[in-house]
Amino acid sequence: MDTGLRGKTALVCAASKGLGKACAMALAQEGVNVVITARGAEALEATAAEIRAATGVTVTTVAGDITTEAGRAAALAACPSPDILVNNAGGPPPGDFRDWGREDWIKAVDANMLTPIFLIKAVVDGMIARGFGRIVNITSASVKSPIPHLGMSNGARAGLTGFVAGLARQVARHNVTINGLLPGPFMTDRLKTTSKGMAEKSGRSVEDEILDRAKASPSGRVGYPDEFGSACAFLCSAQAGYIVGQNLVMDGGLFNSTMG
Ligand code: NAP
Question: Cα–Cα distance between 177 and 20 in angstroms, integer?
Fold first, then answer.
C-alpha cells in the first residue's frame, strides 16, 4: 500500500526510545522526514543515526523536555509546519492518590494533557490551511480501562482525550485528523521500569513480572513496539482520512468488551 506520505514532515515527540521511536521509524519507512525529540541527547542522536541508516530520510534532532515551554518552542522552531504530529511524553509515576499534592498533579496534567494540546494549537491551523494533517496522541489503555496505581495517568490522559474528541470533529472537514493510540503493555524501557517496581514489591524477578503480564493477555504476549509504529503510520496515511476522533486500543485483547 502506498500511504501517500513520501516527502511529508513529522514532528514525533519523545522519540529516542520505545513507542515514540517506533512511530518515527515507521513514518520514516514511508518516506516521511522526521524531527524527533527527547531529553537525553546521546540516545536521541543514536536513534537518529539508526533511522537515517535504515530509511535515508532527513532526521532532525531536538534535545529538550517537551513538557516545558522551552522544549516545545525548540521543537516547533525546528519543525514549524509539520504535516504529522505525534504527541508523546513520559508517563506520570505510579502511587496512591493520597500522597499526591497539587504540584504532582500539575506536572502530570502539564505532561500528558496540556503539552499535546499546546502542540496541537501551534500546528493545527497550518494543517488546515494546507488541507492535510494527521495528529496521533500516544496515550494509554488506561484511558478506557483505568489502572488503579496510575491515577494521574488515568486522569490527565482522559482530560486530553475529552478535549480531542471535540476538536477532532471541528477540523476533520479540512482533511486534518486527530486520533488516540492507546498502548497496553509493550516491550519498552517503561514496561521494564514498571515491572521492576512490581518485582521489588513482590520479591519476584522482573522477567517473571513481565511474563505474568504476557500470560494475562489473550495474545499470550506483550506488544512489540514496531507493531505500534505501524499502526501509527497507518493512522497518518492518506487512506486514514476518514478515521476521526477515534481511540485505538492496542493491548492484545486485554480490554474485555464486545465492542471497542
Ligand atoms: P520509554 O520506552 O520509557 O520511552 C520514552 C521516550 O520518551 C524516551 O525516548 C524518552 O527519552 C522520551 N521522553 C520521556 N519524557 C520526555 C520528556 N519530558 N520530553 C521529551 N522526551 C521525553 O516509554 P514508552 O514505553 O515508549 O512509553 C511512551 C508513552 O506511552 C508513555 O507516556 C507511557 O506512559 C505510555 N505507555 C506505555 C506503555 C508500555 O507498556 N510501554 C503502556 C501504556 C502507556 P528521554 O528520557 O531521554 O527524554
Answer: 19
Closest ligand 1 atom number to CA of residue 71? 19
Nearest atom in ligand 1 to the alpha carbon of residue 22 is 26
Q: What is the mean pLDDT of residues 178-191?
A: 95
Eight-state DSSP code of residue 111: I
Distance 12 CA to ligand 1 centre (A): 12
Name residue 7's amino acid.
Answer: G
Using alpha carbons only, what angle is made at residue 17 by residues 12 and 21, rounded to the nearest 5 degrees? 40
State if residue 66 touches ligand 1 by the CB under 6 angstroms criterion.
yes
What's the confidence (pLDDT) of residue 194? 82
Global pTM exceeds 0.70: yes
pLDDT value of position 197: 82
CA distance 194 to 237: 32
Does any ligand 1 atom lie closer than 6 A to the CB of residue 90?
A: yes
